[in-house]
Design goal:
247 residues; alpha+beta; 12 strands; 2 domains
Length: 247
């Protein structure tokens, strides 16, 4: 039986990887000149390197899907080179190994948060630090609890993992409501939102100390946030006032 499934050749993938590498190693002008000399030396009207690259990368997306790891890696490298970090995508992994982590339960190295912006107290997205519940009582939002946890983990002596989309009991709640009500089903925007919160509220900005990755378990998205110690006091700044949270 002949397998008629369309795929991408290894040569095609290697060529894209080489073009991106040359651009990163040298600069765009030099990489484009080398590209023209190699493939378009006899043609007067030569294409722009970046146009060729994004066309080839999008072809991989058409063939293999927008969750394909090769497509996402090339897409991210390209948008890093053209200096558009807001376009960078998360690699969503269908990975049951995260279940073993959840099964361990919360500890001094692992904490669960049910959501980022969605609260069952109010059937909508809650973007503020605090909000009023049905009884007109002040409540801390999911956003506040996550930023406070990240702040305290930065001030800890060990690395800590935060799983967002999991209840305290270990039940997988997922981020479907956050995506539906807050980010129009775009996981990348949800991860970018977390980065924006950290840069806005936590001082000094902990560059390189926080890494995010989405996992997909039975059609539920879970955001894994790995936080490394900052080794200097990190402040949670609200309305000009600095607070230090520590575990």
């Amino acid at each position: 039986m002949i397998n008629k499934r369309v795929n991408i050749s290894r040569v095609y993938v290697r060529n894209i990887r080489a073009l991106l590498h040359n651009w990163e190693k040298d600069d765009e002008d030099k990489a484009e000149q080398d590209f023209h000399n190699k493939f378009y030396s006899t043609i007067d009207k030569k294409p722009k390197l970046r146009n060729v690259l994004i066309g080839r990368i999008n072809f991989i997306k058409q063939v293999r899907g927008d969750n394909d790891e090769i497509f996402i890696k090339f897409w991210n490298k390209y948008h890093s080179l053209i200096k558009k970090p807001e376009k960078i995508k998360q690699i969503v992994k269908e990975d049951d190994s995260i279940l073993a982590l959840i099964a361990e339960g919360e500890s001094y190295k692992l904490e669960f948060k049910q959501s980022m912006e969605y609260s069952q107290d109010k059937n909508k997205c809650i973007t503020s630090i605090k909000y009023k519940d049905a009884k007109n009582k002040d409540k801390f939002s999911p956003k506040f609890k996550i930023i406070r946890a990240i702040n305290s983990f930065l001030n800890s002596e060990i690395g800590v993992t935060l799983l967002i989309g999991v209840e305290n009991s270990g039940k997988i709640y997922g981020l479907s409501e956050d995506l539906k009500k807050c980010q129009k089903n775009d996981p990348d925007k949800l991860a970018l939102k977390l980065t924006e919160w950290v840069e806005y509220y936590i001082k000094p900005i902990p560059l390189g100390k926080i890494q995010t990755k989405f996992y997909k378990i039975k059609n539920n998205f879970i955001l894994k946030v790995d936080i490394r110690p900052y080794h200097e006091p990190a402040f949670f700044e609200i309305n000009g006032k600095k607070h230090i949270y520590q575990e």
